[in-house]
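Run log, item B.
One chain of 363 residues. Sequence copied directly from the ordering sheet:
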Amino acid sequence: MASELCKTISVARLEKHKNLFLNYRNLHHFPLELLKDEGLQYLERLYMKRNSLTSLPENLAQKLPNLVELYLHSNNIVVVPEAIGSLVKLQCLDLSDNALEIVCPEIGRLRALRHLRLANNQLQFLPPDHENIALNWCSCEHSWTNRYLRCVLFHKYLTVDRNRLWYVPRHLCQLPSLNELSMAGNRLAFLPLDLGRSRELQYVYVDNNIHLKGLPSYLYNKVIGCSGCGAPIQVSEVKLLSFSSGQRTVFLPAEVKAIGTEHDHVLPLQELAMRGLYHTYHSLLKDLNFLSPISLPRSLLELLHCPLGHCHRCSEPMFTIVYPKLFPLRETPMAGLHQWKTTVSFVAYCCSTQCLQTFDLLS
């Protein structure tokens, strides 16, 4: 087996192969033949799936400088070396089905990277800096980081199925190119107010989030998957604001501080102040970065940069209070598409009693 491996690598070196297949070789260590002398300078794609590798060499980038795709699916890799960040041409990195508990931040230096696959590892969080990456990240134990989401601006497909996610950060709604979002099989009880506001986002799948009962009305007329949602839940199980209409109750995002009703005619002072400040800086200065870091608390600055949501009736930004209105999916023309198998409702989040009274999802 060793002689056959050496022969395969030698032929690839002599004939300047661009692709090298070393799958199913029962490799426990990265082959030294790949790293000898000048390495394989012409190699662009290396396939090492379904081996027993536990680590990667520190000089990988030095010996294989032109790698564009690296496939390490189904090994036992525990740690990715910092030197991975020097593979400047790498566009696809498949580390799914390994034993990773962390991902080194140096992966964020891979400016050409577009596809990062980390399914079925033991990850608990994301590194802070990755840019322009399209994620296919299923079956990991991880939490979102808002800084990460603000950086990942250009991917079109985001899959985080079968994780333990209980919330989705509102910054996700600011990704301008996102076309398809799949979050099936998590622990979501609510979704961001603005989810679906982007015209680019056309496909959203949240099936089998059993506690999820409300979909933002921006998702109406999008392609949505929500089977297996809306199971009964005891109020004591979650500490979230909820809104009821008839026999239907939905949970609101944890960041919402208050729920308005059609009988409220005056907005809270903090909400009025935040809306005024937002419009002043956006209309006159066009740049919220003008605000000094010490001029407002960090939490309020964060809200100014990314409001809780925008009124589903008039697009007014909202910061602390929302006026919700339920439209059961079963009572909409979309009911037939879901064969009456879902108990979720669309939720319109409005900015005032006037918008609440005049908004009609079906008009």
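Observations after the first pass:
- Confidence is low (pLDDT under 50) at residues 126-134, 145-153.
- Residues 269-285 form the longest helix (17 residues).
Flagged for discussion on Thursday.
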